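Exam revision sheet. Question 4 asks you to relate a sequence to its structure. Input first:
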Amino acid sequence: MLFPALAPMEVTPAQSDALFVVLMLTIVVVVVLTATAHRVPPGHRPVVIRGNQVRRLPPGRTAMRLPLVERVVEWPTGPVEERLQVRAHTRDGAEVRVLAEVTLDLSPPPIGSPHGDPIPRVADELWLTVSRLAASREVTDLRDPTSGLRAALIDRRFADGLVRVAEFKIAEINLLLPERAGGDR
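Answer key, structure tokens:
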């Protein structure tokens, strides 16, 4: 015989049953491991959530979770860009539309805190803050380097301190004309 190791072997029913059990256990282990490992994309870190509370902040980009009990969400580690459009009245009575680009830095959520995406909440808080800041300034002061909107918002924290405004760039400030009696502006 050319390859004696490949000669047909006699397998007993007990060996066949044991081989079947080992094969099934191997398949189950592989399925469980692939179901519990979660890898997040670059620029994010894994956050393990159980019952809508933050449970773990694993290092690296891979997290293990308990299937059906926990889930893994992606939390940005780098800056997050948001666009903002606010319509407000200034202190001198002018109606303006402020278009801005905001860069946000997110801190990791504390363990045990309730989980929620802070970006929509921060966008709402930013809208209110810019509206209030515009109402406390004259239209000519909105772009002022020392007392304008940018100076008032840089390094301000939102969402219980999790989100910091790293940059606030005013793209445009439009002065809206009041409506006339005919409905034209």
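Marking note for examiners. DSSP finds three helices and nine strands in the chain.
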